[in-house]
Amino acid sequence: MDSPHTNVYLDDMIGMLEALWGEGFLSPGGPEEVARILEGQSLRGKCLLDIGCGAGGIDIALVENHDAAKVTGIDVEEGVLARARALVQARGLNGRIELVKVKPGNLSFPDKSFDAVFSKDSIIHIQDKHALMAEVFRVLKPGGRFMASDWLLGTEQPSPAMAEYIAAEGLGFEMASSARYRDAMDKAGLVDIRIASRNAWYRSQAREELARLQGPVGRDMAAAFGQNIIDENIRMWERMIAVLDSGELCPSHLHARKP
User: Considering the entire predicted model, what is its pTM?
Assistant: First the structure.
């Protein structure tokens, strides 16, 4: 499970994304989207692995809002983990949230370690989806669930506009289609596989985010992070909306179960 992209979320970017999406969140939807990914599944008394925990908001939501017994959040970036540790400490959740810096590659946990594996918009950085799903299967207990969201390709071959957007993001995106994700989960041995598009939801959300970047919120953010960063992100959102509208960028929910 290879993810060579480390140290792409710098302090200014973390601060800007939190200003847009909420404390501890580096992708859209906040705690409400975490709840939608879970689809009402009870986490009470369960131990979870969160792949790509980022700045900590996800793991705090899993514990505070959904009563997970313990969440082990892993990430390859020290910068986001430092932010996550500060937030977890401030909430007094160190006993229920463990944050671990990992190296790209196989998961460093024994077989059948977790009741569920969760991820929110992070496995886009992992190139080998088949190796990832094999590792997810390995660390899940029998009956355990994989519940995630990710940014998927709506087409097998990116158009020039999509390729330009991916290159402009500069975040080491390793995007895959729903067919490749489904094949990876199936070959790993996971069952009850479901992939649900969130494109329509995020097309609307992205326009609201762009309006905020172009308005008073963006002006406040420019004072904190610099006008150049805000201008660059306005252009980025415009590129992103174009490929959302074309269906080439397809945020999706991913669900499966280990028999």
Answer: 0.93
